[in-house]
From TrEMBL:
Gene3D superfamilies per the UniProt record, alphabetical: Electron Transport, Fmn-binding Protein, Chain A (2.30.110.10)
Name the UniProt record assigns to this protein: NADH-FMN oxidoreductase RutF, flavin reductase (DIM6/NTAB) family
Alphabetical keyword list: Flavoprotein, FMN
Family named by the database record: Belongs to the flavoredoxin family.
Cofactors: FMN
Species this chain originates from: Deinococcus reticulitermitis
One MF term in the entry's GO annotations: FMN binding
InterPro entries the UniProt entry points to: Flavin_Rdtase-like_dom, Split_barrel_FMN-bd
This protein's record includes keyword Plastid: no
Domain of life: Bacteria
């Protein structure tokens, strides 16, 4: 088996982007809603996104700058200690999510332009997309800048799930497949569904030892 190595320190940003987005897959999509000046709702998708911990629950996403180097509306709206909501994207909402990435004029509300209904948040003042199967209500705790990369870390204050995907609220059991979420594959228009999953049981060291002894 042969491998090809790419020295990212010697490549320009577009080449690094192509390599990494084609390799690190699937990537969940953070469809982030924020409030701008005057209460205008901004809605934009980001696939540089992930869950970083649970105590406290933390998510991270990276809203890149505009081509001229200025921050995108999402970063401007969150500011220091600001609130935001991460709406997770179902297959049914894929087209609307994609359209919300359109470079609408500053201050134009994507949800209104696309006919998406919004509903008030519970723990934050930022609304969520009403038809999103899951939404994470967050507050920014820190923003890290590494060169031109901006990483926003947010504490998740509340989670709203579509009720048909909640199997047992008291025991916090969720039917993940029923959420029918999608993820990004590659950097240009590639997506995947998440229903095609499989399970592997966690193996203890003692179980692993017995298995090795059985092979000898």
């Amino acid at each position: 088996m042969t491998h090809t190595h790419f020295d990212l320190t010697a490549l320009p940003p577009p080449a690094r982007y192509k390599l990494l987005t084609a390799t690190v897959v699937p990537r969940p999509i953070a469809w982030v809603s924020t409030l701008g000046p005057g209460g205008a709702v901004n809605l934009a998708p980001y696939s540089f996104f992930g869950l970083m911990g649970s105590d406290p629950p933390v998510v991270a996403f990276a809203p890149g700058d505009r081509p001229d180097g200025t921050p995108k509306d999402t970063a401007l709206n969150i500011g220091a200690g600001g609130e935001f909501t991460v709406n997770l994207v179902s297959a049914e909402l894929a087209e609307a999510m994609n359209l919300s990435a359109t470079d609408f004029p500053h201050g134009m509300e994507e949800a209104r332009a696309l006919g998406l209904a919004l509903t008030p948040g519970v723990k934050v003042g930022v609304p969520r997309v009403q038809d999103a199967p899951a939404a994470l209500e967050c507050r920014e705790v820190q923003t890290v800048r590494i060169g031109r990369t901006r990483i926003i870390l947010g504490e998740v204050l509340g989670v709203t799930l579509r009720s048909d995907a909640v199997l047992d609220a008291g025991r916090h059991y969720v039917d993940t497949a029923r959420l029918d979420l999608i993820g990004r594959m590659g950097g240009r228009g590639g997506y995947t569904r998440t229903r095609d999953g499989f399970e592997l049981a966690r193996v203890s060291y003692e179980e692993w030892q017995r298995e090795q002894e059985g092979k000898s």
